[in-house]
Amino acid sequence: MSKLTLPGVLLALLFLGNGTASGQSICPLNGTPSPHLVCVLPQVYGPFGLGPGQGAPLIFNKHQSHFQGTFLTSLDPINEAVGIQVSQLPTASPSSGIIFTYDPALKTFSPSIDESLGPILGERSDTIGRHKLYVAFSFQYFDFNSIDGQNLNRLHTVFQHATFLPPFPPGSGIVSCPNTTGLTVKNGYANAMGVAPCFVRDFISSTVSMDLTVHQYTIYATYGITPRLDVSVAIPFLNVQTTVGADTTITSNSVPPVDPVNYPGGVYHAFNPVTVPTCPQLPLTTPCLHATFSNSGTATGIGDVLLRGKYEIYKGERFGVALGVDVRVPSGDAQNFLGSGSTGVKPFGVFSYKGRVSPHAEIGYEVNGNSILAGQFVGATATNTKGSMPDRFVYIVGADVAVTRRLTGAFDIYGQRLFGVPQLYPSTYTDLGKCNDVNCDILTPGTAHPDLLVRQNTDYNITNASLGLKFRVFGHLVITGNVLLKLDDNGLRSKAIPLVGASYTL
């Protein structure tokens, strides 16, 4: 039997995590349903989205819908932001709570239990000790409720009608809107050949609710190579569950020709009761303009494995300095929010002081590769092109306090600065006004509606406070309880993230 080596394990993990994407779009919106969690939001309106197709919810009469482009513009950035941030969840530190130091009198390594049991999310400079082994387990629960300050249960978005310019298809009966108010070149609805039809004034408003929870179970191990060098591995296992609902209304601002055969109910756009179960069985003269949609999914599996090496470059009587590097291996399934889909490398430095009150600080910078989560994978023409995952500057500053010889309290400020990420912000959409008759002689001015827009390639901070306790039950067995509290609104956030864990040092 061949010997299993660390390089061999690393190569295997890299091979598993860097598989190439298939040629077909992950979320095609061409009628093919997808089992991947990244498609739950894009396919909340069905496998056709709001686009054309015989099974699409808007195919009710002979007029095909043209809202797909703005659908992707409005919802795809939300999906991208969720994918980027849920794939990089915080974990507890793999450092041991009990440190072994060399005792010259005994000529052996002895546990140092005179000071605190160390931080929970933060780091201290001490390494575990030569030939010592630390093993641990932790559980974290994430219940995300906001993204960039917006309530995940009330995401307001508007889908505008796509640009529709002459020449119109022969025999279609489509004509230019008699009243050109609002249909200007500035808005992209006119050219030298004429103006768009009145039905471009129609729009769809939707209130999207998204429930997203993650159960993260992590196994840690740290081994001391030398008195000053140790290596660690953290292997997370995740259960991700998401449910999306959309309360959706069509506003018909145009008045089509009186043609009950081709335009039943006197509207161009309406939901098809055959396709949309929430539409009541109304007579054709009463079109369905309001419907609710839902979609859900769950995934379970290994997340991105974290590998660490840490070396203590200075060891004083109380003060210490260490340097290290974290390598995140893309072993998790990015299409199911189980991993980032890219390799991440984070060099870091640690400064700490040993005592009954032990302050510590860690700074690091994580460089990330490309991932499908930041790419183009939604829509019938998507090419699954990967995009760049954001780099991060990470800092953790805090202190742990030895309350008793067995009990330690830990406090940290855990901050991140993300670079080049999409960020959502609230906006309003003012519609083009409602035609009161076929000729649109009387045009009611448009009104404002809540909407969401996205800023691409922005930089922002994510700041949390960590509060916890460590208790040494007996010997080298330590149990941990902690809660991570959000201090600002940027990014995908939970109000509170609980953590429980247990560790043992051999």
Indicate the proportion of strand residues. Answer: over 45%
- Identify the CATH homologous superfamily: monomeric porin ompg
CATH architecture: Beta Barrel
Q: How would you name the oligomeric state of the polypeptide chains in this document?
A: single chain
How many helices does DSSP assign? 2
Query: Spans with pLDDT under 50 lasting ≥5 residues?
Result: 1-22, 185-192
Q: What does the main sheet amount to? A: 12 strands, antiparallel, barrel
What is the topology, as strand order, of the major beta sheet? 3-9-10-12-13-14-15-18-19-22-23-25
CATH first level: Mainly Beta
Pairing-aware structural class of the strands and helices?
Answer: mainly beta
N to C succession of SSEs: HHEEEEEEEEEEEEEEEEEEEEEEEEE
According to DSSP, the number of beta strands is: 25
Average pLDDT, rounded to a whole number, is 84
Structural description of this entry:
The structure is a single chain. The chain has helices spanning 6-17, 68-86, and strands at 99-103, 108-112, 133-144, 146-147, 150-151, 155-160, 190-191, 194-195, 203-224, 229-251, 290-302, 305-315, 319-329, 344-353, 357-368, 370-376, 385-388, 391-402, 407-430, 434-435, 443-444, 448-474, 477-486, 492-493, 496-505. A hairpin with an 8-residue loop joins strand 16 and strand 17. It has 2 helices and 25 strands. The strands form 6 sheets. A 12-stranded antiparallel β-barrel has the order 3-9-10-12-13-14-15-18-19-22-23-25. It has a 3-stranded antiparallel sheet with strand order 5-4-24. It has a two-stranded antiparallel sheet with strand order 1-2. The protein has one domain (6-161, 202-505): Porin (Beta Barrel). Helix content is 6%, strand content 47%. With 506 residues, it is mainly β.
